[in-house]
Design a protein that fits this description.
By secondary structure, the chain is α/β, with parallel strands linked by helices. It has helices at 15-25, 57-61, 76-88, 98-115, 123-126, 131-138, 153-164, 169-178, 186-190, 193-207, 226-235, 297-312, 320-324, 376-381, 412-420, and strands at 6-11, 32-38, 53-54, 68-71, 92-95, 119-120, 144-150, 217-218, 238-247, 253-262, 275-282, 286-293, 335-343, 354-363, 367-375, 391-394, 400-401. Helix 4 links the parallel strand 5 (92-95) and strand 6 (119-120). It is globular, with a radius of gyration of 23 Å.
Length: 427
């Protein structure tokens, strides 16, 4: 493939699809053009000639004049059918569909090898941030210890608006949707599922570990309580939705997506609005920080454009670390985290799930909270985790291996509170 023969079959002409058309118009050096566009809605008005559009998937996939398929729809099941069909026809694919990728990653890796056809997806990880290719190439021989970051621009925009502009959660969400930052199904964003899907991709390229999304704990921002927000303000901390994957001494990896309190001097505290920020920690390069727009039409389209350019010089992912780290796996039972739990009188966490409880607080106006250390597996399996009125926020400390040292005793004030407060009897 050379720079003169990129003829694109595009699926989806929404926010990102139109953004791609815009950046292609402004990038004459690539000399790529859209030959056909597959869409679903027959009634929607569009600003390009009608003959460019089709409602038949196979009209695009079977067109011999199209040599690259770009998939930019938000239906993961249909995206899977498109991508699989394109690869089986020997057509290179660029996609931004992280849900589809996360749910079928191993199958897609295998099909790329079987058909000797590239599948690129830089836009699926952190929009404009050049994350996947850096993990794949720059760190190909440098053993990474951790990746952590804000990898969902929608939730970061919402949390920024709530903190800086004093908006309610619902008002901030509406604004994010109006600006095109939130997905068509906002639950993917606000429940942490979009970040979890992206973390699956980061795990594969950072550690050579192909994980299932359902094996990674994800807690979103919908349940964050006023008491948790008050705690953050009182302690001078900033609330972010953070995805983290960290290598453990036992050879496993701990991974989770959790609302997290970060210190003001931390790199992620300064990531505002729809921006993403990713920190890598490695043996040789030490600590590095990537910052860029993580949502929006043009930033996402710029990553698609970069993948298209990469195809012109024969680039493909080699998944080198899948061979280097074949025995690596997720080991949540070997990891623990420090968390803040806020709750009311109706439902409470089970104290037996915690290895240590550090603080306990009760206010008639705001409710209850405790801070403590809990195993990642215990937290994921806790019966109380998703109960109404319970809010989980990680304290400003990384995921770590379960300690074997004796836990510090709970202070006497906390013990006295448990002894006298019947409303939180599960503790």
């Amino acid at each position: 493939m050379n720079r003169n023969d990129i003829r694109i079959g595009l699926f989806g002409f929404g926010v990102v699809g139109q953004g791609l058309h815009t950046v292609l118009e402004r990038t004459p050096g690539l000399r790529a053009r859209i030959g056909r566009i597959g869409v679903k809605d027959r009634t929607k008005a569009r600003n390009l000639p009608a003959e460019l559009f089709t409602f038949d998937r196979d009209e695009v996939l079977d067109d011999p004049t199209l040599n690259v398929i770009v998939e930019l729809i938000d239906d993961a099941d249909e995206a899977y059918r498109i991508v699989m069909g394109a690869l089986r026809r020997g057509k290179a694919v660029v996609t931004a569909n992280k849900k589809m990728l996360a749910e079928h990653l191993q199958e897609l890796i295998d099909l790329q090898r079987e058909t000797n056809t590239p599948l690129l997806y830089e836009a699926a990880a952190c929009a404009s941030l050049p994350v996947i290719r850096n993990l794949e190439e720059y760190y190909d021989t440098d053993l990474l210890e951790a990746v952590e970051g804000i990898i969902n621009g929608s939730t970061n925009y919402i949390l920024t608006a709530m903190h800086r502009d004093a908006l309610t959660f619902s008002a901030a969400l509406r604004k994010a949707q109006e600006l095109g930052f939130a997905e068509s199904n906002p639950a993917l964003d606000v429940e942490g599922l979009d970040a979890r899907n992206k973390l699956v991709l980061l795990l594969a390229h950072a550690f050579g570990l192909v994980a299932r999304p359902e094996d990674i704990l994800a807690v979103g921002i919908t349940g964050i309580s006023e008491l948790a927000s008050s705690y953050a303000r009182e302690k001078g901390l900033v609330l972010k939705l953070v995805a983290e994957a960290r290598r453990l001494p036992n050879g496993g990896v701990a991974a989770a997506v959790l609302p997290t309190l970060v210190r003001p001097e931390h790199e992620l505290a300064r990531v505002q609005d729809e921006y993403n920020g990713l920190i890598t920690q490695s043996n040789f390069a030490d600590r590095q920080f990537f910052l860029g727009k993580g949502a929006g039409a043009v930033p996402t389209a710029s990553a698609v454009l970069s993948d298209l350019s990469a195809l012109t010089y024969g680039y493909r992912y080699e998944y080198k670390k899948l061979h280097q780290q074949s025995a690596l796996s997720l080991t949540p039972a070997a990891a623990e985290a420090d968390i803040l739990v806020t709750f009311g009188a109706d439902h409470a966490p089970d104290r037996a799930d915690f290895s240590t409880v550090h603080e306990y607080f009760h206010s008639q106006e705001l409710g209850y909270y405790l801070t403590g250390t809990i195993g990642l597996e215990q937290l994921a399996q806790a019966a109380w985790l998703r109960l109404p009125g319970i809010s989980i926020v990680r304290l400003p400390a990384p995921l770590r291996a379960v300690t074997t040292a004796p836990a510090p005793e709970t202070n006497t004030i906390v013990q006295a509170a448990w002894a006298t407060d019947e409303a939180v009897s599960p503790l």
